[in-house]
């Protein structure tokens, strides 16, 4: 702990990871946010806060309540809970935790895909329920990964890690982004719906926010077709959940594997009731190893900012900002 940084007040907002609190407490002056939120902090404390380590909503009111705020260091790669454009307008740096979780989330995506297509959770339940002994072998699955063609909606850091895995498993891979990725041989589709029509396995790994809101809609699911499998490992907001429920119920698509939902942790009863939906409680990056790496990056960004005036992983909206 240097004399310089130990005087700097850093707000801890939201429940991220205990290692964030431990390190912030060691390297800075940590300010815990209580039940009353920022409003409950006394004015002198609010005015002293220069940084925030967050896994909580950061809106204009949050930023305006902290006049000395210089940096918001957010836990996780998705930062749709942070109004980064507003932060940029107030000269507040925003960082996230990309890369350190990409391989972990890609592993989860592939596991979820296999579970969905080969019904492994249902097969395990068959065994545990004693049905193997009573009724014999688990029924052959109608779906297989053999011969499948995956379309990745969001070929970014995580999307590429998924694509590499699927390629190794013998699947054809295409993708849709707003623009083609340089140096990538996978087939590019300029339209999500056209890609859905060309593939049978749609994997969504786009960020949340207005640009992707309910992008996977009834039309896209219809284009995916009756052998179609939809996997969502990005954000629940990117799919029209009601349209997905209807598509799964009506057989418009075959199955879905979801790690993310529109209103977590509330999962619609209609989804829970569907046998062709394989559901996980947002565990994409949830290992001790990866969550600790994310926690370290949250604090490393703060340390770097206050030591050197630069950060390791700025979000694009604030990448150009410098310490004043
Ligand atoms: O569109 P591009 O060229 O900016 O490509 C990005 C793509 N993307 C979109 N594609 C189509 N329509 C959109 N409106 C749209 N918005 C973004 O998603 C890019 O290829 C990809 C996101 O990749 P990265 O920024 O590298 O994010 P990363 O680390 O792969 O994480 C993706 C998301 C997070 O934001 C969390 O929501 C979740 O996965 O964990």
Task: Itemize the secondary structure elements and their pairings.
Elements: H1 3-6, E1 9-14, H2 18-27, E2 29-32, H3 43-48, E3 49-55, H4 60-64, E4 71-74, H5 84-89, E5 93-95, H6 102-118, H7 120-128, H8 131-135, E6 149-153, H9 157-168, E7 172-176, E8 187-188, H10 192-198, E9 201-204, H11 218-224, E10 229-232, H12 241-250, E11 255-258, H13 269-272, E12 277-279, H14 288-308
Parallel strand pairs: 1-2, 1-3, 3-4, 4-5, 6-7, 6-9, 7-8, 9-10, 10-11, 11-12
The protein binds ligand A2R.
Detailed description of the structure:
The chain is α/β, with parallel strands linked by helices and 324 residues long. The protein folds into two domains: 9-100 and 288-318, Rossmann fold (3-Layer(aba) Sandwich); 102-279, Rossmann fold (3-Layer(aba) Sandwich), CATH 3.40.50.720. 38% of the residues lie in helices and 16% in strands. The chain contains 14 helices and twelve strands. It has helices spanning 3-6, 18-27, 43-48, 60-64, 84-89, 102-118, 120-128, 131-135, 157-168, 192-198, 218-224, 241-250, 269-272, 288-308, and strands spanning 9-14, 29-32, 49-55, 71-74, 93-95, 149-153, 172-176, 187-188, 201-204, 229-232, 255-258, 277-279. The strands form two sheets. The protein has a seven-stranded parallel sheet, sandwiched between helices. A five-stranded parallel sheet has the order 2-1-3-4-5. β3, α4 (60-64) and β4 form a beta-alpha-beta unit. α10 packs parallel to α11. The radius of gyration is 22 Å and the shape is elongated. The two termini are 23 Å apart. The mean pLDDT is 96. The structure holds ligand A2R. Ligand A2R is lined by residues 77-78, 98, 102, 105, 154-159, 176-179, 205-208, 211-212, 234-235.
């Amino acid at each position: 702990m240097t004399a310089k940084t130990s005087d700097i007040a850093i707000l801890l907002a939201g429940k991220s990871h205990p290692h964030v609190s431990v390190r912030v407490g060691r390297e800075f002056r940590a300010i815990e946010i209580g039940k009353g939120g920022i409003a409950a902090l006394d004015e002198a404390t609010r005015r002293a806060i220069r940084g925030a380590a967050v896994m909580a909503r950061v809106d204009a009111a949050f930023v305006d309540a902290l006049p000395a705020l210089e940096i918001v260091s957010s836990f996780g790669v998705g930062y749709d809970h942070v109004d980064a454009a507003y932060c940029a307008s107030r000269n507040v740096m925003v960082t996230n935790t990309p890369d350190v979780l990409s391989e972990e989330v890609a592993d989860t995506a592939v596991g979820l895909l296999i579970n969905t297509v080969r019904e492994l959770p249902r097969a395990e339940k068959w065994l545990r329920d004693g049905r193997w002994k009573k009724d014999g072998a688990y029924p052959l699955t109608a779906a297989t990964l053999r011969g499948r063609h995956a379309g990745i909606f969001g070929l970014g850091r995580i999307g590429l890690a998924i694509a590499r895995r699927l390629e190794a498993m013998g699947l054809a891979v295409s993708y849709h982004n707003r623009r083609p990725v340089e140096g990538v041989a996978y087939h590019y589709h300029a339209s999500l719906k056209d890609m859905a029509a060309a593939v049978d396995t749609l994997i969504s790994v786009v960020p949340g926010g207005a640009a992707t809101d309910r992008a996977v809609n009834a039309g896209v699911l219809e284009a995916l077709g009756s052998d179609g499998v939809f996997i969502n490992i990005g954000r629940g907001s990117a799919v029209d959940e009601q349209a997905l429920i209807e598509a799964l119920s009506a057989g418009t698509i075959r199955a879905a594997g979801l790690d993310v939902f529109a209103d977590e942790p509330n999962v619609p009863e209609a989804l829970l009731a569907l046998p062709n939906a394989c559901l996980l409680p947002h565990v994409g990056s949830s290992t001790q190893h990866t969550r600790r790496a994310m926690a370290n990056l949250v604090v490393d960004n703060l340390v770097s900012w206050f030591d050197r005036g630069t950060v390791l992983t700025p979000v694009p909206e604030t990448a150009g900002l410098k310490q004043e």
